[in-house]
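Slack export, channel: ligand-projects

TW: morning all. Re-posting the request from yesterday since it got buried. We need the structure predicted with the small molecule present, not the apo form. The ligand is S-adenosylmethionine; the SMILES is in the block with the sequence. No rush, but it would help planning for next week.
GE: picking it up
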Amino acid sequence: MKHSEIKKVVREGYGKIAKTNSSCCAPTSSCCGGSSADDTSRKIGYTDEELSSVPEGANLGLGCGNPVAFASLKKGETVMDLGSGPGFDCFLAANKVGKSGKVIGIDMTPEMLDRARENARKGNYKNVEFRLGEIENLPAADNSVDAVISNCVINLAPDKKRVFKEAFRVLKPGGRLMVSDIVLTKELPDNIKDSMEAYIGCIAGAISKDEYIMAIKYAGFRDVRIVGESYYLELMNDPGIRDLIEKINIPPDVVKEIAESMVSVKVQGMK
Ligand SMILES: C[S@@+](CC[C@H](N)C(=O)[O-])C[C@H]1O[C@@H](n2cnc3c(N)ncnc32)[C@H](O)[C@@H]1O
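GE: finished. pasting the full token output, ligand included:
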């Protein structure tokens, strides 16, 4: 499949998710979603305080980590979130950088942007801006941001090397990259690799951990290191993930194999 066709399917998939999940407490039916978005988010490292600090509906349980928690954001900094979805991490980042700082969320799905902008309005966030765009062609100037964050998105991009190059370009010298994402430790079964449902579900687009780290280094980042990782085994018991497995029609014996192949990593790099 051509890269443009993959992105079209991903955009349509997330467009539907943005439209169908109307409350933060609604069951999610997506990527890394669970029976309730907040339950899933607690499992991947968000605190109750963080969950209650954002506008209702900003968390759809689509992430696979908590990049803001390890980004060491400071007052006055400019942060860019690649694939910002409904804005959850942008709002957490905005709380950290304060009024003198700025957060820019980038997403290619117009329905997600509508939701994110509505959430910003509800929460009266003046220091957050959402821009329509692809993370492979960031709508931002060179050397303009202090930190780039991303949560469970780069696995969805067909050209990951390009995404990291773009992140490097927009960062100021000394700027930092902090991403949570899904990577593989083993090859996925062929029928999963070819499934677009599994692609939208943040499984089939994932690459090996080594390739992922190489792509970050290749873009020019230094001090690249994995600061945390967790296997997906526990999340595989989550009702939302079970829904996805049923939807893709994965035989039970293959489920364990997939779970053992997928790792959620937190990676950092410096420009
Ligand atoms: C799994 S969701 C994660 C959303 C958000 N980071 C969160 O944790 O709630 C993936 C998001 O990335 C967006 N996305 C996927 N591929 C993209 C691309 N190539 N360029 C821009 N946005 C993309 C989707 O539209 C969707 O909103």
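GE: first-pass observations. The beta strands are 78-82, 102-107, 128-132, 145-151, 171-184, 222-231, 262-270. Residues 7, 10, 14, 31, 60, 62-63, 83-85, 88-89, 106-109, 112, 134-136, 151-153, 156-157, 202 surround S-adenosylmethionine (CB under 6 Å).
TW: perfect, thank you
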